[in-house]
Amino acid sequence: MLTVENVRKVFGSLTVLDGVNLTVKPGEVVSILGSSGSGKSTLIRCINGLERLDGGRIGIDEFDISRSRDLAEARKRTGTVFQLFNLYPHMTALQNITLAPIEVLKRSKEQAEAEARALLDSVGLANWAGSYPAQLSGGQRQRVGICRALAMQPRYLLLDEVTSALDPEMTAEVLTILAKLAREGTTMVFVTHEVEFARRISDRIVFLEQGKLLVDLPTQAFFGPETGRDHPRIAQFLSKMRKD
């Protein structure tokens, strides 16, 4: 189980996360919505240990990410896909995917490559294993990024605005892969502006506003009329996103 307990994060005089609580059970898909600057990406960076907490606690199964002795084990249980791909430009798609399993999980090169090729095949990139990032489209690079995260066999997949840098056609490619992962029971925490997609694949929706968790509701309830009546800010946000 992934647990976020009263988490606080401050940058200078700006409080980016303020008392956030969240629990994600194995097999759940939880989408995090909110306007730019609401703290969504910072929350993902805190969960995977890229940002130090200024208060509260985050647990990945039995590991507390604030403890240095636990952080490495916690990171083995999470895979993160970023919005700007973050692939190594001097490595092929295959090499990008196999690097961490070989170095961190101590897989043999043969085993890591076999697993990587299977992942590439599952996202329609079997023929691009030897290609470098510069030779791939944005959608292809993001699919390689997803394969790289999945190669670590994570219990929790963290996705930070993975379609924000893509055009509509490439966005559709990536969302198709994520929908397949959701159907297969992959546990995901998904930061996104793709509201209708979040509605389609999520078990729950979390809404952040100015660093505070405003609601955490089952998907159907979040998009129901009562949420809009009780929380005008959410109604305003959804109305704007649908117009866009």
Automatic annotation (TrEMBL):
Keywords: ATP-binding, Nucleotide-binding, Transport
Name of the molecule in the record: ABC transporter domain-containing protein
Originating species: Labrys miyagiensis
Coiled-coil zones: none
SMART domains referenced in this protein's UniProt entry, alphabetically: AAA
Domain of life: Bacteria
Gene3D superfamilies associated with the record: P-loop containing nucleotide triphosphate hydrolases
Family under the similarity heading: Belongs to the ABC transporter superfamily.
Segments forming domain ABC transporter: 2-235
